[in-house]
Write a structure and sequence with these properties.
344 residues; alpha+beta; Immunoglobulin-like; PH-domain like; 3 domains; eight-stranded antiparallel β-sheet; 3 helices; 41% helix; actin binding; SCAB; coiled coil; Proline-rich family protein; SCAB-PH
């Protein structure tokens, strides 16, 4: 009896096990079927995403192509503007050259008609004359009849249209490079105090071709930067003449080192002074005397004469917009050169 009951119990256990196994088998098949359905759905989604991704790549490629074309168009427009500006500058330079040529033709014709015109002959020992063209960027030199510099105390002066003269403080060497304030004036150089020991330029100082247009362009932009070397600081020669840059803006002046670190800065003020170097040999045409403050005076050297004159004119014109007239030491600021009217 006990053995029969045990067998029945084992059979029941086996039946239960078979039933559970069968249920598990059915569940696995159901899960497998669901997994297959999900797999197919995922495959369809992956396929759709792949197509969408491909379309997006094509659209992105087209957008990049359009962006590249737009950038090329912007560059072409920028180059066209630069070329137009260069053409305008060249037109201005050509007009100035034509005016200068016409003036030289008239002067030549007058010289042919009048034998007494032209430089005064050097007939007496000690007489001298001024050599060189009276133009911004040029260099004037005093020489005697043999071409040598005269001996004596020299003094350069500006002679205005009304005949009055004003001495140029510090201009007491045999060479002198005209300052923008000299435009429209005849320059004279005297030795000693005798009226017979004086020479004058044959014509008033003129602007160099294209200079006025470049200055007006910088004024319109409101800023300009020039490469410079600091030659002197408060009268002391700088042994290490590193490269600097001077930025002239509508509000003031700032000088930077080669690394871009600010070194000097000043807003326009009545005690500021700026003029061309008054002496210094051939380098004077590149030199600027700039006194930013009463205790801060600099002697700067630009890369070329044109940069020097543009820089000086910009500083004076920007300062004038603030009601401040700037010049060099002891200059008569009431007789300054006016860029707009082109009159001294």
């Amino acid at each position: 009896m006990i053995e029969a009951n045990k067998a029945v119990w084992e059979f029941r256990q086996l039946a239960d096990s078979m039933r559970k196994a069968e249920e598990k088998g059915i569940g696995c098949e159901s899960l497998a079927k669901k997994d297959r359905l999900k797999t197919k759905e995922l495959e369809k989604k992956v396929e759709l995403l792949t197509e969408t991704n491909q379309q997006l790549r094509e659209e992105l490629s087209q957008a990049q192509s359009i962006s590249e074309v737009q950038e090329e168009l912007r560059q072409e427009q920028s180059r066209c503007r630069q070329l137009q500006e260069e053409v305008e500058v060249l037109k201005g330079a050509r007009e100035s050259q034509q005016q200068e040529i016409e003036a030289l033709r008239r002067e030549s014709a007058a010289a042919k008609c009048s034998p007494s015109s032209g430089p005064k002959p050097l007939t007496k020992p000690g007489e001298f004359q001024i050599l060189g063209r009276p133009m911004l960027g040029g260099m004037l030199r005093v020489a005697d009849e043999s071409g040598d510099p005269p001996v004596g105390v020299l003094q350069w002066s500006r002679k205005f249209l009304d005949g009055s003269c004003h001495q140029i403080a510090g201009a007491c060497r045999t060479q002198y490079s005209p300052d923008p304030m000299d435009v429209g004036c005849v320059l004279t150089c005297s030795i000693g105090k005798g009226p017979d020991h004086a020479a004058s330029t044959r014509a008033p100082v003129m602007l160099s071709p294209g200079l006025e247009d470049k200055v007006k362009s910088c004024l319109a932009e409101g800023t300009a930067t020039f490469n410079i070397v600091i030659v002197q600081l408060n009268g002391e020669v700088q042994s290490r003449k590193g490269m600097y840059s001077i930025q002239v803006t509508s509000t003031g002046i700032e000088i930077f080192s080669a690394s871009g670190k600010p070194k000097f800065q000043a807003d326009y003020a009545a005690d500021m002074q700026v003029c061309g170097a008054r002496g210094g040999g051939d380098a004077a045409s590149h030199g600027i005397y700039l006194c930013l403050q009463p205790n801060l005076a600099l002697m700067l050297a630009c890369e070329n004469a044109q940069d020097r004159n543009i820089c000086i004119m910009l500083i004076r014109e920007f300062a004038l917009r603030h009601g401040i007239a700037l010049g060099g030491p002891k200059d008569d600021l009431s007789r300054r050169f006016d860029l707009t009217s082109r009159r001294p």
